[in-house]
Write a structure and sequence with these properties.
This protein has 163 residues and is α+β, with helices and mostly antiparallel strands. Helices cover 30% and strands 20% of the residues.
């Protein structure tokens, strides 16, 4: 393969010389709608509602939030955290603090915020994390205690019985 040095002066000449023979000349931008693209977008953020809610220093209750999908870095980073090395149970606190993007009006969710959450909310978030990262959805199969009928509940939505 032959190498060429490209400068701003001869760039247009090289592009024309190397363009496929059947390719039409680039058209001027038009107001026409862009070509339709396939809708196979990956859902990377999931909304949730905490069972009890996080109460901040000012006494404000925060229940609605969002969690993003975890990356490999999110899973590996807690392994080198000194707090996790001293107490392996702290791993979930560090991990959740990395993937929760918003909690009510709180946008800086750090380990201290997760530490001050109620245990029921942390357990909910751990299950929510597992569902969205392992199963790719927020639905859970449940059984009615009265009629023993089975159905699915979306864990990210409101409380049971609310719409």
């Amino acid at each position: 393969m032959r190498r060429r040095t490209v400068t701003a002066g001869n760039l247009e000449e090289i592009l024309q010389a190397t363009a496929p023979a059947t390719a039409p000349a680039p058209a001027a931008p038009s107001a026409a709608a862009p070509a339709p693209r396939e809708e196979h977008a990956l859902r990377t953020e999931f909304e949730f509602e905490l069972p009890r809610g996080y109460v901040d220093e000012a006494g404000t209750l925060h229940r609605h939030g969002s969690m993003r999908l975890a990356t490999a870095r999110d899973e590996l980073r807690p392994q080198i955290d000194l707090r996790v090395k001293e107490n392996p149970a702290y791993l979930s606190v560090v991990l959740l603090s990395q993937v929760i993007t918003r909690l009510g009006t709180v946008t800086d969710v750090h380990a201290g915020v997760v530490e001050r959450m109620y245990a029921t909310d942390v357990a909910f978030l751990q299950d929510f994390y597992r569902r969205v990262n392992s199963e790719g959805h927020t639905r859970a199969a449940v059984t009615c205690p009265h009629c023993e009928g089975g159905f699915e509940v979306d864990l990210s939505g409101g409380r049971l019985g609310e719409s």
